[in-house]
Amino acid sequence: MKKLYIFLFITLLVNHICSADVSIKEKTALLQLYASTNGKHWVKKWNLNSPVAQWYGVEVKDDKVVGIQLFRNNLMGVLPEELGDLEHLSTLNLAFNAITGELPKTLVNLKNLKILKLEMNRIKGEIPSDIGKMTALEELSAFNNFLSGTIPESIGRIKNLKVLNLSSNSLKGSIPSSLGELSALETLGLFENTLQGAIPVAMGNLRNLKELVLANNALDGEIPAEFGQLASLEVFQIQNNKFSSFKNLEMMDKGQFLVFDYDHDDKNIQFKDINFSKSRMADTKFEDIEDEE
What we know:
Oligomer: single chain
CATH topology: Leucine-rich repeat, LRR (right-handed beta-alpha superhelix)
CATH class: Alpha Beta
Number of helices: 3
Strand content: 15-25%
CATH architecture: Alpha-Beta Horseshoe
Number of strands: 18
Structural class: alpha/beta
Order of helices and strands: HHEEEEEEEEEEEEEEEEEEH
Distance between the termini: 51 Å
Radius of gyration: 23 Å
């Protein structure tokens, strides 16, 4: 009799696991993503008759969608507004596809999202002004798109942010001073936009910053003397801007850099321990290919 009870229990458990699936709301959001990005032409397609947990790139935990990894999978089309209904999502990686259109306004509803990777697509329009609501974000990578408008001031509310890469877009205006509030930030890439104005003094507070790439913009003014506090900085690129003086670079420990590039036309700077043979342009465009494959 005891063996019969164990058999029945295991049978019920297996049936429960097999029948378990995500909510209708989340499944609908996934189906909308599949339809709006031309799922029939993806490299690895979803079998819509199978449980969601078996769909390629979809991670389900406790019957909730917590991850979507569709890197380089030939997604074409726009991101649906229903994407914001995936409220338990922690990782969203749609990098290296052909996604077009604008970012859905509902994107900021993903309050549990830690990793958002949208690089190497064709996304246009502005970054949502209230992106600061996504307070769990640790990585936001959207380089090589067609994003326009300004960098929202609210981005300074994302206190957990470690990686922010918005390089190679069409962003304009000034760098918001609120970036100086991102105390956990380790990588900041704003290379190749049309940013103007002075570098905010508050960015000297980014004590954990290891990589700062501001090259190929229209930034002006002086390099903040407060940059002398950036003791963790290893990659520093500010060339091809319109700075009026590089004098404050003397406040920095030149020996700390692995990569250092600036416009070498200020003859009065007394450099120490800089090996310019190590200087190069950091490649911000394809930095994650090896890690994602």
